[in-house]
Amino acid sequence: MARIVLLALPLLAALLCVSADPNVLFKEEFADGDDWQKRWVQSKHKEDYGLFKLSAGKFYGDAEKDKGLQTSQDARFYAQSARFTPFSNKDKTLVIQFSVKHEQNIDCGGGYVKLFPSKLDQSDMHGESEYNIMFGPDTCGPSTKKVHVIFNYKGKNLQINKDIRCKDDVFTHLYTLIVRPDNTYEVKIDNSKVESGNLEDDWDFLPPKKIKDPEAKKPDDWDERPKIDDPEDKKPEDWDKPEHIPDPDASKPEDWDEEMDGEWEPPVIQNPEYKGEWKPRQIDNPDYKGKWVHPEIDNPEYTPDSDLYFYEDFGVIGLDLWQVKSGTIFDNFLITHDEKYAEDSGNQSWGVTKEAEKKMKEQQDEEERKKQEEEEKKRKEEEPQEEEAEDDDEDDDEEEDREKEEEKEEDEDEEDTLQKDEL
Ligand SMILES: *[C@@H]1O[C@H](CO)[C@@H](O)[C@H](O)[C@H]1NC(C)=O
């Protein structure tokens, strides 16, 4: 009996190599072909969810390693999720990490994950399903390019009060959220810190600690004027002079005919002695008390909570999002208690393939450019005499494109609102 157990142990460890490290709660790198479909569940809440397919995309650093879940249909909602052994982050650091590649040059769409409690019915996951944490990039038009960090607290979804910009290029980027049991947090992009702080300051978990004393009121005789009119200063007797006077140098023209031209009046000029409105000199106000500051009191509504970071139960990670132009690849999902492990894991995945990915993209762009050059050349050789007429056509096309672009942006704005409502 003992021998069987001994023999079985290494095998078991190999099979469960992920769960073997108690600090790794979920890891998904899509390294086993179509088997991901056994681990991920498609929601049936709607009938027309977009399909994820396994792909490394049009350009990549490593054809195998860079395979991830790619959105494959435009203008669709997506809803896939995977379950893991339920855990709580009580007294432990929680790290959520994954990579996102918007190789389609995304116009409008989500690139975030949601962590749900284990009670979630995956086959019915949808935009309103209650989650614990939502984290990751969200893009819509030129105005929305941000990283969401949303915590569910007592049934309410709280957005971060800071603006964290997400990446808006076509390459793979690593997004990491760290939440620590001392109620501090950190957001990293590509293994570099982009934001950090503490939960109480950067989300409206709790009402403010201090409020303005509702009993306090500025005394009626509180003088906030630093300067006053000098009571000693009096307007000089000869101050008031008209602003305009008849020109003393003007004289009636000799050929002026009163009967024909009417009574002669000299032209009016600015009076050089006019001093404008008199204002008394300003002196320091002897009664000045400074600006009145509304005294604050402890907010009776405030109760500290040292467990803002804490969730009893995590059990499912999900991609629940909307995309206009599809093509985003999600990969390298990791949930762990170990910050260092996550960083190293990011280095081993995103860190290893990012340079080669960039290179392949540059090569493709270069080839594309050459191809277009050739085609242009060929076109010109074939129809040299029609060049002028064609130029005009091109101008029209450009204008049309611009109009289309504008329409598109308007659409995007609407979609932005849609997404917000979903939150
Ligand atoms: C990850 O890579 C960066 C940059 O090469 C390096 O500074 C850092 O120490 C690495 N982290 C780990 C945990 O190996």
Automatic annotation (TrEMBL):
InterPro entries given in the database record: Calret/calnex, Calret/calnex_CS, Calreticulin, Calreticulin/calnexin_P_dom_sf, ConA-like_dom_sf
Protein name as catalogued: Calreticulin
Gene Ontology biological process terms in this record: ERAD pathway; protein folding
Biased composition (Basic and acidic residues): 210-254, 354-382
Signal peptide: 1-20
Entry's family note: Belongs to the calreticulin family.
Keywords: Acetylation, Calcium, Chaperone, Cytoplasm, Cytoplasmic vesicle, Disulfide bond, Endoplasmic reticulum, Extracellular matrix, Lectin, Metal-binding, Repeat, Sarcoplasmic reticulum, Secreted, Signal, Zinc
Domain of life, per lineage: Eukaryota
Annotated an alpha-D-glucoside binding sites: Y112, K114, Y131, D138, D320
Compartments (UniProt record): Cell surface; Cytoplasm, Cytosol; Cytoplasmic vesicle, Secretory vesicle, Cortical granule; Endoplasmic reticulum lumen
One function term, GO molecular function aspect: calcium ion binding
Location of region: Disordered: 197-282, 341-423
GO terms for cellular component: cell surface; cortical granule; cytosol; endoplasmic reticulum membrane; sarcoplasmic reticulum lumen
Ranges of Acidic residues composition bias in the record: 255-264, 383-416
Pfam families, sorted: Calreticulin (PF00262)
